[in-house]
Amino acid sequence: MKKNLLTVAAIAAVAVSGVCQPTQLKYEELAKTPQMGWNSWNTFGVNINEQLIKDVADAFVTLGLKDAGYEYIVLDDGWMDMQRDAQGNIAPHPERFPNGIKAVADYVHSKGLKFGLYSCAGWKTCAGYPGGQGHEYQDALKYAEWGVDYLKYDWCHTAPIRDMADKETYARESYTVMAHALREAKRAVLFSMCEWGSNNPWKWGAAVGHSWRTTGDIYSTFDGVRGYSFGVLQILDMHDQNMLRRAAGPGSWNDMDMLEVGNEGLTLHENQSHFALWAILNSPLMLGNDVRSMTEETRAILTNKDIIALNQDTLGIQAFRYKTLSDSVEVWAKPLADDGWALLFLNRSKAPRTFTFDWSAEQRIVDDFFHKEIAFSKEKTYKIKDLYAGKEIGATKKPLTAKLAQHQSLVVRLQSTKKK
Ligand code: GLA
Fold it and tell me: Which domain range does residue 384 map to?
């Protein structure tokens, strides 16, 4: 009888935790679409603590972020103590996380969300806390014990190597050690590699982790450079996107860094362009604002289901720059799983621009690399939905004309008018 009661209690415990625990996929099955979540760095730097993270988890649920698909809550640099403990274990910062990391992870999980941490492939993190080098397996076990579902792994304080081939090998091997450690710890952890595109991660990243940063850090501006930090346009232009897109696909993504949407320094139109560009380029959508106090305008952008759907499209093909129209309007194109396409018309200029896009003159848009094409003719037309206005704005029968304010984008989805 006693045994039976215990069994019932055990089953009940599993059932209760089963409700709250996110499903555990295997390493290889993660990030089939780009990861979505929040990261503490862009707004809070190292000034993070248990209450903040709990409040962010609450806000995910109450403000509709969870429903929109945001899933991971990730603590960036500063969550750890300045020293490892006597056994070499990584330990939480005693004032910021007095109840330990597992308590925070449990809270995040209790909301049906997933939990992530930051560490670094060097001997110290970028903010000077202990790094993972030489402790990879020990740390991976600790993360598994705490219930970590996501690891962002940085590149500060690694060895300075000059030769490019050696640099690439060193970076690839460093990240591979951590990837092995995560697998050995037997918990499915999404591995977000952050070596800023400095060792050609697009060449080797897909075989190692789930995403790789392509650039130095973003900061909250549309067009500008500040030291090693870059604005939206600089990140967009830093590498040949045509080269980058070839390396990405389900399970492995180019990471253009955390979003600055909602942070001071960007206008409404800039926020919309930034978000839509990251979405169609299949970058992870990791929020970087203070979601607890975001404006309705910011919330509307970040929870725009039509834009998010472009990012989460199961085909996983990253957009490409199709052409530049006269007067700095760039056209970006992304093939989608339903045979429709997304197009983004970006006004890069500081002045308003009016453009016309004549579908019948274009005839077709071709993605050579992924062998996709969309053709426009009298027989084959598409309905056009403006995804920020949330309404249909005609069809490809007639040329599309629109006026874009400074840094504004028109983001449209083309849908076949023919029933299948
Ligand atoms: C680097 C990374 C940032 C952030 C900081 C933390 O600069 O690129 O995203 O993680 O370190 O110190």
Answer: 320-416
pTM as predicted: 0.94
The ligand 1 site (C-beta within 6 Å) comprises: 41, 76-77, 118, 125-127, 154, 194, 196, 217
Same domain, 356 and 236: no
pLDDT digits (tens, 9 = 90+) for 179-195: 999 999 999 999 999 99
Do 381 and 327 share a domain, yes or no?
A: yes
CATH at residue 398: 2.60.40.1180
Amino acid at 411: V
**Can you read off the two tokens belonging to residue 386?**
């403006």
* Domain shared by 206 and 295, yes or no: yes
Name the residue of 39, 41, 151 to mutate for ligand 1: max ligand atoms within 8 A of Cβ: 41
Given 250, 276, 311, which residue is the final one in a domain?
Answer: 311
| 250-296: pLDDT as tens digits | 999 999 999 999 999 999 999 999 999 999 999 999 999 999 999 99
Sequence letter at residue 94 = P
Q: What is the pLDDT of residues 125-181, one digit of tens each?
A: 999 999 999 999 999 999 999 999 999 999 999 999 999 889 999 999 999 999 999
* CATH number of the domain enclosing 204: 3.20.20.70
pLDDT for 18 beyond 90: no
Both structure tokens of 419: 């029933």
Buried b (16+ CB within 10 A) or exposed e, 127-159: bebbbbbebbbbbbbbbbebbbbbbbbbbbbbe
Catalytic residue among 154, 257, 290, 367: 154
